[in-house]
Amino acid sequence: MSRIAPVISSNLDAKTATTLTQVKASIGVVPNLFATLAHAPVALDGFLSLSKTLSRGRLLARQREILALAAGQENECQYCLSAHTASAKAAGVSEADALKARGGNGEDPFERALASFAKKVVHQRGHVADEDIENARKAGIDDGLMMEVIANIALNTLTNYANELARTEIDFPVVEVKL
Prior knowledge:
It is built from nine helices and no strands.
């Protein structure tokens, strides 16, 4: 059971109601995460703004989903793992590749490096070794992409922590945290 339930649309201010209506128009539903973040409209707006900004970065949607899966696994967020397994599929990531990304692996060397690097950054809270930076660079993750990875991790950590705090009810096909 949720500790913080999603907002009820009849209790929303006009701006937040409009934001959630736009979310529904864009993706077809208002996921429980979005309706839970709406308790603090600034949190919802910040999440949506950063998400939109990152979609214009150098990382492809598929690669952003791989990062989300790696971060979600490292942070043990079942809601995000379930949501991003579904959205990764829409971005062309197979179930097998999604599972590999969660473990910091993958068939594609660049995507494997992204997942592995992201897991290290999350696990070590940014305190990665020089060797990890060098390995990322050798795999094609330049300094700009490292910062973009960090921004994606920040976005996903926001949702991981929000969902864990709220115990958001999963409204996607459920994926278990354990690999």
